[in-house]
Amino acid sequence: MNGRTDCLASADPGNPNDLVIEAGRANAHYWRDLWRYRDLLGFLTLRDIRVRYKQTVLGVGWALIQPIVTTGIFTFVFGKLAGMSPGGVPYPLLVLAGLLPWQLFSAALSGSSASLISNSNLISKVYFPRLIIPLSSLGVAAIDFLVVLGLYVATSAWFGRIPTWHWALLPLFIALALLLAFGAGIWFTALTVKYRDFRYIVPFMLQVGVFLSPIGYSTGTVPSWRPLLDANPITGIIDAFRWCLLSDGQPFDVRGTACSLLISLVLTFSGLWYFRKMERTFADMI
Amino acid sequence: MATDTVITVESLSKLYVLGHQTRVDTLRDQLTRRFRSFGDALRGKGTAGKPVDEFWALKDVSFEVRRGDVLGVVGRNGAGKSTLLKILSRITEPTNGTVRIRGRLASLLEVGTGFHPELSGRENVYLNGAILGMRRVEIDRKFDEIVAFSEVERFLDTPVKYYSSGMYVRLAFAIAAHLESEILVVDEVLAVGDAQFQKKCLNKVSEVTKSEGRTVLFVSHNSAALQGICTSGILLSQGKLVGQGPIGECLGTYLKTGSQRAEFAAPPHGKPYISSVSVDPAALAAGRIQVDVGFRSPFPLSPPVVGIILSSKFGQPISGSNGRMTAETFKPAPARSGIVSAHLDNVPLHSDTFLISVYLGDAAMDYDQKLDVIQFDYVSPRFYPQLPPLQIIGPADFPWRWGFKAD
């Protein structure tokens, strides 16, 4: 048997398409396959975006309505009713700057958490690196985010504010929000394949998260609650977004951002480990 | 191992665990299970004895496929054909055993996987192509060819939800037919679509095999299709490999080993009933049809009359007969039980799947009926290389004679 294997190997040593399938054997070409299927990532993202707005009158307008309404409500509740201080920034801008990363994160997380289940027809019929599926949900969230970012730029200009060099660092924090959502998303989506409970857990977490994250108010106004807020990895990202976009004189919160980065990395690496471990059984369980 | 071997399968097994681990496992189940086993451990009880339903979908299957082979995978539902293809396609992992594959393997387990009804034909070509493993540039290059093959040019920018099922299948198969791969795995996809297009697909499959030396693994219930395009076959039964060789032999063994038999218990009200129906496998393998109908009755049936109807796989009746029709020549003595056999020696049928319905009665009335109770594959001893699709000409093969008179 070994002799035959050697013969196979020596006959055509360099063919990258040769493949051995065995129980428990990790796919040696996984990351190369992932790269090879990158076009699929694009098409799946495109599919979800196209499909979402087919046969709607407002189309992409729907991506704007939610943040506009939420900004209005939060400005009213926190700015007017609770009378919280925006720290020298128009209150709607403060809210919108916090809403941006939150929406990016929550759309990416809820999308990627549900992604495997909603693509179960693909998983049971075709092979491709399954990581493509949650990744494509990140793509969808990122594109919606760009629309809302456009809204922010317009609002900011309307309030007569001029962008500073801080804006140039925004892509880093966008990446950080996506990384955090990806790390948590691959955990949840792999868990959902086995335990459907997570279909209910994730939306609930996000619902609660809106209030536990400093979206409607600035962290500077609630110093005594700081330790609690810091336990939430989104806080660091929201603060970083505000630092970038508002330039309101608040110092950059290195500790909070580093904390978010650390949590994101831990979630991502452990999530990748769990996802890869479970991936080979997805088709049997889904 | 010969250098032209492209697939080596060695003692491949796949175990599915049923029962406790239901498909939707909730967290609560796990927690209660953990909790219980913890409690059992405290009380000194083991949990090892828990009944778990295990099911070997494949067991110790080994075979080799050579470059350019068109291998037909033959077997009944549940024989392990789909599991085998899923393992080869890397969708699911084997429990034991090894598969070695040389070259790029593309699999087509379903027509139009990932097609989205809201997207246009054009968008779906790209999406489905990418799902099947094509790069964007590859699809760009073949786009016109795919569209021409599919014959849906005019509707390219229409959402596929408005397509007829025929157009849908044509477009989907056109994409798959243009995959560049050394090995193609096809599961039962030709069972759908209109007859002309099926023919075109079969031609395409044989064309690529001959010209490009492509290896094809082909699962179908259509024995005619298997016989027409496959060079060799493997026969699976209950997860085990029970036959291997030329496709004709495999199909023959398949029909011989099959248990085309159904049995029935007595009905509650004590009336005459059909106790068993079977299609004799030995007769089938010899190209004849013999249907045996067992019956039981609380009173003697005078005489026992059995009726049978042979239908196409779509349930269209082809031919029927019963003992009342033929009372002149066949009139058994009154009986409470027995087996009535219906024989057909020169079978005017093409290779296809057929259904049998049976009736039981006496001279006066019918007492029991079993509709479409047996499904069996008939393999015709006559082979026509240019056989049109059966959807066009029908499954009956009457012995037509031709004449010609020159002007």
Helix-strand pattern of chain A: HEHHHHHHHHHHHH
Broad CATH class of the largest domain in chain B? Alpha Beta
Largest interface summary: A-B, 47 and 53 residues
CATH architecture of the largest domain in chain B: 3-Layer(aba) Sandwich
Give the CA-CA distance, first to last residue of chain B.
Answer: 63 Å
Strand content of chain A: under 5%
CATH superfamily of the largest domain in chain B: P-loop containing nucleotide triphosphate hydrolases
Strand content of chain B: 25-35%
Tell me the overall shape of chain A. Answer: elongated
Measured between the Cα atoms of the first and last residue of chain A, the distance is 35 Å
Mean residue pLDDT of chain B = 83
Q: Which secondary-structure class do the elements of chain B indicate?
A: alpha+beta
Estimated helix fraction of chain B: 25-40%
Number of domains of chain B: 2
Q: Would you tell me which CATH topology of the largest domain in chain B applies?
A: Rossmann fold
Query: What is the radius of gyration of chain A?
Result: 22 Å
Alpha-beta classification of chain A: mainly alpha
Q: How many distinct helices of chain A? A: 13
Overview of the structural elements:
The complex is a heterodimer of chains A (286) and B (407). With 286 residues, chain A is mostly helical. Chain A has one domain. Helix content of chain A is 71%, strand content 1%. Chain A is built from 13 helices and one strand, in the order H-E-H-H-H-H-H-H-H-H-H-H-H-H. Chain A has helices at 2-11, 30-36, 38-53, 61-81, 91-118, 120-123, 132-158, 170-194, 198-212, 226-230, 233-246, 254-279, 282-285, and one strand at residues 19-22. Chain A is elongated and about 65 Å long. Residues 1-13 of chain A have low confidence and may be disordered. Chain B has 407 residues and is an alpha+beta fold. Chain B has two domains: 61-257, P-loop containing nucleotide triphosphate hydrolases (Rossmann fold, 3-Layer(aba) Sandwich), CATH 3.40.50.300; 261-393, abc- transporter (atp binding component) like domain (Coagulation Factor XIII, Chain A, domain 1, Distorted Sandwich), CATH 2.70.50. Chain B is built from ten helices and 17 strands. Chain B has a six-stranded mixed β-sheet with strand order 5-6-7-3-8-9, with helices on both faces. In chain B, strands 10-11-12-15 form a four-stranded antiparallel β-sheet. Chain B is globular, with a radius of gyration of 26 Å. Chain B starts with a strand and ends in a 14-residue tail after the last helix. Chains A and B meet through helix 1, strand 1, helix 3, helix 6 and helix 13 of A and strand 1, helix 1, helix 2, strand 4 and helix 3 of B.
